[in-house]
Amino acid sequence: MAMSNPTGRANYEPNSWGSNGGPRENPETGFKTFSTEETGAKRRVRPELFGDHYSQAGQFYRSQTDVERDHIAEAFAFELSKVETPAIRARMVGGLRNVDETLARDVADGIGMAELPDAVEPARKPINDLAESPALSIVANGPESFAGRKLGVLVTDGVNAKTLRSVRRAAKSAGANVELVAPTRLGIADSDGKELEIAEKVDGGPSVLFDAVVILPSPDGADDLAGLAPAKDFVADAHAHGKFVGYNESAEQLFDAAGISPDGASGYVELTGTKKSAEELLSMCEQLRCWDRG
């Protein structure tokens, strides 16, 4: 049992870092179990309510937003699609009927199950009228801030310096971090000739690493990105995952190559190099995800 909050290279034992390697067991000052004699029968008894396996699950599901309910159903369908034995799939969906009929139906549809199986006989009848609790929803209790989040900016050599500066300033005002992603780590400069520090090569820095993304290729660099599979994946994944996306005019060539059209799509902001357009993007990012599109 830890009796303090150690600092150092390792906070676990055993480790090979010597005397400065974090916590060490101490038989003299460490925790000792109190020695006592016990009498009578030792029993492991649980109250009857322990047999209720579904009521709280139902309350949790019904307390979610529509987006979260869809994600829960999709997650169940994904996992059950890996199950080879039909009887096990049916039994799981039958258990979900004790949680919520809509959830069971959505999961069944997700794995192609035409008819719902009979509900599993519960050990204790679930309580289906527990009041919804807004506190159980992550989306409904979001931070309403982009502070501390990470903005990934995909650039190429010759990126417009003014537009990049406007994005950096808006992100700084919002308390967000900016990392540049490019086809290479070295040899990338902006239109003013300033060498840029690239955090990730696009092959190893996909958009899933970032909370929102910005696509700022130069006119010449856009053609190179459009032929680069990781760059197309970068924007396609950002779109599919409901990330907010800022982009310049040159980025549309990459969008076309990835089969994406930002025109009329929710969560896209065209960046013109102005303070207003950059701040508009960062303001939208406070929602963290564009659920209308994701």
Which features would summarize this protein structure in a list?
single chain, 294 residues, alpha/beta, Hemocyanin, N-terminal domain, Rossmann fold, 2 domains, 6 strands
What does this structure look like?
With 294 residues, the chain is of the alpha/beta class. The protein has 2 domains: 50-139, Catalase, four-helical domain (Hemocyanin, N-terminal domain, Up-down Bundle), CATH 1.20.1370; 150-287, Rossmann fold (3-Layer(aba) Sandwich). It contains 9 helices and 6 strands, in the order ααααβαβββααβαβα. It has helices at 55-62, 66-80, 86-96, 101-110, 161-173, 219-226, 229-240, 252-257, 275-284; strands at residues 150-155, 177-182, 200-201, 212-216, 245-247, 268-270. It has a 6-stranded parallel β-sheet, with helices on both faces. Helix 2 (66-80) packs across helix 4, helix 3 packs antiparallel against helix 4 (101-110) and helix 5 (161-173) packs across helix 9. The model has no long low-confidence stretch (mean pLDDT 92).
